[in-house]
Specification:
mainly alpha, 11 helices, 258 residues
Length: 258
């Protein structure tokens, strides 16, 4: 639930972003285009040539586009929960200054989640527009797929924040991305069906938030039924957001109010 003080955090971040947006806006637009050209059009032409029936009955570009949309949101959420949190607590010490004001630790955490989720939403909307520009899906379906992408981004944001606030040094962040984020990016159904993974690895893929988001987004874009009921995936992703947010409060309080 939003509070006036947590919204002050959003306002402060927006003021900062107003001065720094040029550093990220190019990659926000360029990365989706490069993903679509390289993985969708380039690789997709080879896949379609060798699989006339497509992947799961659709051209590879259509199959992969919603997956990359969700993957981009997942990476954005993880980045906001990692470097943003580490910078605020350990490098810039700006979070200590914020809780020295009337803003509580809970209000700071909520403001951080609201702002980072807004960033995920913006990145996802841009990606959805580019999907429509590539004529993978109509604009409406592409924009509707933003919903699952934002849920995944917020889930990864909350989980990564809960992990980062427990670190004593930034050395654990590269390991997190190497052993958690990158495998999730590659093996959660974005680029090929999870059923093609080894049997022992498939359950691990299914419990990742990205798998649920990819299934929901692909169901919207391709008009297919997801492997898991949509409401189950929504509840699962919501549980990630709420659960890991709660798990962040105690370590944050110890870090910011020693």
């Amino acid at each position: 639930m939003a509070t006036p003080l947590s919204l002050r955090i959003v306002e402060a971040e927006a003021r900062i972003y107003r001065r720094t947006w040029r550093g990220s806006v190019v990659s926000t637009f360029l990365n989706p285009i490069l993903y679509m050209l390289a993985m969708g059009v380039g690789l997709g032409s080879l896949v379609d040539a060798n699989m006339p029936g497509g992947v799961d009955g659709v051209p590879y570009l259509t199959f992969i586009a919603p997956g990359i949309l969700v993957a981009s949101a997942m990476q954005t959420g993880a980045g906001e929960g990692a470097w943003k949190v580490m910078g605020g607590i350990e490098w810039q010490k700006s979070w200590q200054a914020r809780v020295a004001s009337p803003i509580s630790v809970e209000g700071l955490l909520l403001g951080h989640i609201y702002w980072a989720t807004a960033r995920v939403f913006f990145v996802s909307v841009v990606f959805a527009v580019i999907i429509a520009a590539f004529r993978v899906a109509p604009l409406l379906e592409s924009l509707l797929a933003v919903g699952p992408a934002v849920l995944v981004g917020a889930a990864m944001l909350s989980a990564t924040t809960a992990y980062t606030v427990r670190l004593k040094s930034p050395a654990g962040l590269p390991m997190f991305f190497r052993f958690v984020v990158i495998p999730m990016f590659l093996f959660s159904g974005a680029f090929f069906p999870v059923t093609q993974l080894p049997g022992w690895l498939q359950p691990l893929a299914v419990v990742t938030p990205m798998f649920h988001g990819v299934e929901l987004a692909r169901a919207i874009v391709v008009d297919q039924s997801p492997a898991i009921a949509w409401w189950v995936s929504v509840l699962y992703l919501s549980a990630w957001i709420v659960g890991f947010s709660i798990m962040s409060v105690g370590p944050m309080r110890r870090k910011l109010n020693p």
